[in-house]
Write a structure and sequence with these properties.
single chain; 200 residues; alpha/beta; Oxidized Rhodanese, domain 1; 5-stranded parallel β-sheet; two-stranded parallel sheet; 9 strands
Protein backbone atom coordinates (compact mmCIF):
# COMPACT_ATOMS: atom_id res chain seq x y z
CA UNK A 1 0.00 0.00 0.00
CA UNK A 2 1.21 3.52 -0.82
CA UNK A 3 -0.10 6.48 1.20
CA UNK A 4 0.21 10.10 0.15
CA UNK A 5 -1.02 13.57 1.03
CA UNK A 6 -0.29 17.15 0.08
CA UNK A 7 1.28 18.17 3.39
CA UNK A 8 4.76 16.70 3.49
CA UNK A 9 3.65 13.32 4.75
CA UNK A 10 2.12 14.83 7.89
CA UNK A 11 -1.13 12.90 7.44
CA UNK A 12 0.01 10.03 5.22
CA UNK A 13 2.56 8.99 7.85
CA UNK A 14 -0.27 8.55 10.35
CA UNK A 15 -1.88 6.05 7.96
CA UNK A 16 1.52 4.36 7.55
CA UNK A 17 1.80 4.06 11.33
CA UNK A 18 -1.78 2.82 11.80
CA UNK A 19 -1.41 0.15 9.15
CA UNK A 20 1.90 -0.97 10.61
CA UNK A 21 0.35 -0.99 14.09
CA UNK A 22 -2.41 -3.39 12.98
CA UNK A 23 0.12 -5.70 11.35
CA UNK A 24 0.17 -4.58 7.70
CA UNK A 25 3.86 -4.96 6.91
CA UNK A 26 4.22 -3.44 3.44
CA UNK A 27 3.31 0.25 3.63
CA UNK A 28 5.10 3.07 1.84
CA UNK A 29 4.76 6.83 1.43
CA UNK A 30 4.82 8.57 -1.94
CA UNK A 31 7.87 10.80 -1.59
CA UNK A 32 6.82 14.40 -2.13
CA UNK A 33 3.16 13.39 -2.08
CA UNK A 34 0.55 14.65 -4.49
CA UNK A 35 2.53 17.82 -5.38
CA UNK A 36 5.44 15.68 -6.62
CA UNK A 37 3.03 13.54 -8.64
CA UNK A 38 1.55 16.66 -10.25
CA UNK A 39 4.98 18.19 -10.88
CA UNK A 40 5.87 15.16 -13.00
CA UNK A 41 2.60 15.56 -14.92
CA UNK A 42 1.51 12.04 -14.06
CA UNK A 43 -2.13 11.08 -14.69
CA UNK A 44 -4.84 12.13 -12.26
CA UNK A 45 -8.56 11.37 -12.10
CA UNK A 46 -11.44 13.07 -10.33
CA UNK A 47 -13.84 10.15 -9.97
CA UNK A 48 -14.25 8.28 -6.69
CA UNK A 49 -13.59 4.54 -7.08
CA UNK A 50 -16.24 2.18 -5.75
CA UNK A 51 -15.54 0.90 -2.27
CA UNK A 52 -14.98 -2.81 -1.94
CA UNK A 53 -16.28 -4.88 0.93
CA UNK A 54 -14.20 -7.50 2.62
CA UNK A 55 -12.50 -8.63 5.79
CA UNK A 56 -9.09 -7.60 7.00
CA UNK A 57 -7.13 -9.38 9.75
CA UNK A 58 -6.38 -6.68 12.32
CA UNK A 59 -3.64 -7.63 14.77
CA UNK A 60 -2.99 -4.52 16.88
CA UNK A 61 0.20 -3.82 18.75
CA UNK A 62 2.91 -4.05 16.08
CA UNK A 63 4.26 -0.54 16.73
CA UNK A 64 5.42 0.75 20.14
CA UNK A 65 3.06 3.11 21.97
CA UNK A 66 2.97 4.86 25.33
CA UNK A 67 0.06 6.38 27.22
CA UNK A 68 -0.12 9.38 29.52
CA UNK A 69 0.70 7.35 32.62
CA UNK A 70 3.80 6.00 30.86
CA UNK A 71 4.89 9.55 30.00
CA UNK A 72 4.36 10.75 33.56
CA UNK A 73 6.39 7.84 34.92
CA UNK A 74 9.08 8.23 32.26
CA UNK A 75 9.51 11.91 33.08
CA UNK A 76 9.67 11.14 36.77
CA UNK A 77 12.37 8.47 36.48
CA UNK A 78 14.08 10.06 33.44
CA UNK A 79 13.61 6.96 31.30
CA UNK A 80 12.29 8.64 28.16
CA UNK A 81 12.98 11.54 25.79
CA UNK A 82 9.91 13.37 24.49
CA UNK A 83 10.20 14.78 20.96
CA UNK A 84 7.39 17.16 19.97
CA UNK A 85 6.74 17.44 16.20
CA UNK A 86 4.70 20.67 16.34
CA UNK A 87 5.95 23.97 14.95
CA UNK A 88 7.95 26.15 17.34
CA UNK A 89 5.15 28.69 17.78
CA UNK A 90 2.83 26.05 19.22
CA UNK A 91 5.57 24.33 21.20
CA UNK A 92 6.63 27.63 22.79
CA UNK A 93 3.05 28.62 23.52
CA UNK A 94 3.11 31.69 21.28
CA UNK A 95 0.19 30.37 19.22
CA UNK A 96 -2.35 27.61 19.67
CA UNK A 97 -4.97 27.32 16.93
CA UNK A 98 -6.33 23.92 17.98
CA UNK A 99 -6.03 23.04 21.65
CA UNK A 100 -7.44 24.85 24.67
CA UNK A 101 -4.04 25.41 26.29
CA UNK A 102 -0.75 26.49 24.72
CA UNK A 103 2.75 25.25 25.50
CA UNK A 104 4.51 21.92 25.87
CA UNK A 105 5.27 19.14 28.32
CA UNK A 106 8.23 20.09 30.56
CA UNK A 107 11.45 18.51 29.34
CA UNK A 108 10.18 17.84 25.81
CA UNK A 109 12.39 18.68 22.84
CA UNK A 110 10.98 20.43 19.80
CA UNK A 111 11.65 18.91 16.38
CA UNK A 112 9.21 20.18 13.79
CA UNK A 113 8.36 17.37 11.38
CA UNK A 114 9.19 19.53 8.34
CA UNK A 115 12.89 19.31 9.28
CA UNK A 116 12.76 15.86 7.67
CA UNK A 117 11.98 17.37 4.24
CA UNK A 118 14.11 19.13 1.67
CA UNK A 119 13.22 22.32 -0.19
CA UNK A 120 11.07 20.33 -2.64
CA UNK A 121 9.04 18.73 0.11
CA UNK A 122 10.67 15.33 -0.25
CA UNK A 123 12.30 13.34 2.51
CA UNK A 124 15.97 14.05 3.03
CA UNK A 125 18.54 11.38 2.20
CA UNK A 126 19.09 8.55 4.68
CA UNK A 127 22.52 9.84 5.72
CA UNK A 128 21.13 13.34 6.34
CA UNK A 129 18.31 11.96 8.47
CA UNK A 130 20.72 9.77 10.41
CA UNK A 131 22.84 12.80 11.24
CA UNK A 132 19.77 14.86 12.08
CA UNK A 133 18.50 12.25 14.52
CA UNK A 134 21.94 11.24 15.80
CA UNK A 135 21.83 13.16 19.09
CA UNK A 136 18.34 11.85 19.87
CA UNK A 137 18.86 8.22 18.89
CA UNK A 138 22.27 7.97 20.58
CA UNK A 139 20.64 8.37 24.00
CA UNK A 140 20.22 4.61 24.34
CA UNK A 141 19.51 4.69 28.07
CA UNK A 142 16.18 6.42 27.47
CA UNK A 143 13.34 5.57 25.12
CA UNK A 144 12.50 8.16 22.48
CA UNK A 145 8.80 9.05 22.44
CA UNK A 146 7.34 10.99 19.53
CA UNK A 147 4.40 13.31 20.16
CA UNK A 148 2.66 16.35 18.69
CA UNK A 149 -0.78 17.89 19.14
CA UNK A 150 -2.90 14.79 18.65
CA UNK A 151 -0.57 12.02 17.52
CA UNK A 152 -0.68 12.71 13.77
CA UNK A 153 2.42 14.66 12.68
CA UNK A 154 4.42 12.77 15.32
CA UNK A 155 4.14 9.80 12.96
CA UNK A 156 6.02 11.68 10.26
CA UNK A 157 9.02 11.93 12.62
CA UNK A 158 8.72 8.19 13.25
CA UNK A 159 8.57 7.49 9.52
CA UNK A 160 11.72 9.59 9.01
CA UNK A 161 13.41 7.60 11.77
CA UNK A 162 12.64 4.39 9.89
CA UNK A 163 14.18 5.95 6.76
CA UNK A 164 17.21 6.69 8.94
CA UNK A 165 17.49 3.00 9.79
CA UNK A 166 15.53 2.59 13.04
CA UNK A 167 14.11 -0.91 13.51
CA UNK A 168 10.73 -0.64 15.24
CA UNK A 169 10.79 -4.32 16.19
CA UNK A 170 13.73 -3.75 18.55
CA UNK A 171 13.14 -3.54 22.28
CA UNK A 172 13.10 0.09 23.34
CA UNK A 173 12.37 1.33 19.80
CA UNK A 174 10.90 4.85 19.50
CA UNK A 175 7.25 4.93 20.54
CA UNK A 176 4.24 7.09 19.73
CA UNK A 177 2.42 8.98 22.47
CA UNK A 178 -0.93 8.66 20.74
CA UNK A 179 -2.88 11.12 22.90
CA UNK A 180 -0.06 13.69 22.77
CA UNK A 181 -0.62 17.30 23.84
CA UNK A 182 -4.41 17.18 23.52
CA UNK A 183 -4.60 14.36 26.05
CA UNK A 184 -1.88 15.71 28.33
CA UNK A 185 -3.77 18.96 28.98
CA UNK A 186 -7.06 17.26 29.88
CA UNK A 187 -5.95 17.21 33.51
CA UNK A 188 -5.25 20.58 35.16
CA UNK A 189 -2.81 18.86 37.50
CA UNK A 190 -0.24 18.04 34.82
CA UNK A 191 2.67 20.48 34.42
CA UNK A 192 2.88 22.68 31.33
CA UNK A 193 5.59 24.98 30.05
CA UNK A 194 4.94 27.96 27.78
CA UNK A 195 7.86 30.22 26.83
CA UNK A 196 9.45 31.14 30.20
CA UNK A 197 6.30 30.42 32.18
CA UNK A 198 5.81 27.17 34.03
CA UNK A 199 2.29 26.09 34.99
CA UNK A 200 1.93 23.42 37.68
Amino acid sequence: MVAYDASGGAVAARLWWLLRWVGHEYVSLLDGGYPAWQAQKLPVVADQPALMQGGYPVRPGHMPVVNTADVEQGLEDDSLVLVDAREAERFDGRAEPIDTLAGHIPGARNRHFRINLDALGRFRAEADLQESFRHLLSDTDRQLVSMCGSGVTACQNLFAMELAGVDFTDAGAPALYVGSWSEWIRSAGRPVEALLETIN
